[in-house]
Design a protein that fits this description.
Elements (H helix, E strand, L loop, with lengths): L9 H4 L6 H9 L7 H14 L9 E6 L5 H11 L15 E5 L6 H11 L10 H14 L4 E5 L9 H18 L3 E5 L1 H8 L2 H4 L2 E6 L6 H13 L11 H11 L3 H18 L6 H6 L5 H4 L7
Parallel strand pairs: 1-4, 1-5, 2-3, 3-4
Helix pairs in contact: 2-12, 5-6, 11-12
Length: about 300
């Protein structure tokens, strides 16, 4: 039996004997990278989940830049608390429900999203009060203990009146069900919640900051390296390589992950089997900051 390469975790090393296509599929598959700020938020979510019911439940607002790991973190939490068939009862158990805020603050669309996630039949044209009654009844029946709302900054796409109405819905659900509500969004999410001072007082804040180019960043790169099945050790801890990765990703973990995926695929296809500065420079990549620049009109 071949000895496990010291630069790889066992699961990644097992892919070295597979076809390149299988390795590439594995490399492109989503993976969880644990780090301090993300693990701290996971702990806070676990504490919220077991908080005793009260008329004023604590809530949490998770804020971070686009593509900086917010949604993956929450999906990781959801995977720890999946629905249970509850074969001995009349209904399945759904401890955590994850929904996305509608693109505009619309109460009817929001209840549609909840009902769809619970696989409940409903009529899109029904009155909002009927959808509300059905959604609340179902959430009680499945034993819901936490409602997570992604893209909460979408609230700002509506008029001030619509914003207030949508925030009232969130407040109403928290009061009616006596469950914690977790909202996720960009920095604009903080401004969205603040438009209702009463609701804002109920939300604690947790931030997923952009990475800095420091020792923690290098350790993050080395964690990635151990999960990517390449035959030779990469040199991600080399200062010039780390600096290049930081410049190409702007420090966003989603960008870092996708960049290393593309570099690893290039390393396999070229036969180099490692990520270095040459491989990084060979791939077609535009940094997030450059993507936001106004393109030249020819």
């Amino acid at each position: 039996m071949a000895e496990q390469p010291s630069h790889l975790l066992a699961k990644a090393a097992a892919y070295l004997v597979r076809r390149d296509e299988e390795r590439i599929t594995y490399i492109r598959s989503p993976r969880w990278i644990g780090y301090d700020s993300a693990n701290d938020i996971l702990e806070r979510l676990e504490a919220l989940l077991v908080h005793p019911k009260s008329h004023r439940m604590p809530n949490l607002l998770i804020v971070g830049d686009t593509n900086n790991g917010k949604t993956m973190l929450v999906r990781r939490f959801c995977s720890r608390h999946p629905p249970d068939d509850n074969k001995e009862g009349n209904n399945i158990n759904v401890p955590v429900l994850f929904v996305q805020a509608p693109p505009i603050p619309d109460e009817g669309r929001f209840y549609n999203a909840i009902l769809e996630q619970l696989f409940a039949p409903y009529k899109p044209g029904d009155r909002v009060d009927r959808k509300q009654f059905q959604a609340i009844k179902l959430m009680r029946q499945v034993g819901l203990r936490m409602l997570i709302i992604d893209e909460i900054h979408h609230i700002l796409a509506g008029s001030f009146g619509r914003q207030r109405a949508f925030l009232n819905v969130i407040k109403f659900l928290g009061n009616e069900l006596e469950i914690p509500i977790v909202a996720i969004g960009t920095r604009d999410a903080f401004r969205a919640i603040q438009t209702d001072p009463q609701l804002a007082n109920r939300f604690d804040h947790a931030a997923l900051p952009r990475w800095r180019n420091d020792d923690d960043f290098v350790r993050l790169l080395m964690t990635f390296e151990r999960m990517i099945p390449l035959r030779h050790p990469s040199v991600l801890d080399d200062p010039a390589v780390a600096d290049r990765i930081y410049a190409m990703s702007d420090g966003y973990i989603g960008e870092i992950s996708r960049l290393l995926e593309e570099a690893a695929v290039a390393a396999i296809k070229t036969g180099k089997e490692m990520i270095d500065r040459q491989i990084l420079d060979s791939i077609s990549w535009v940094s997030p900051s450059d993507r936001r620049k106004q393109p030249e009109v020819l």
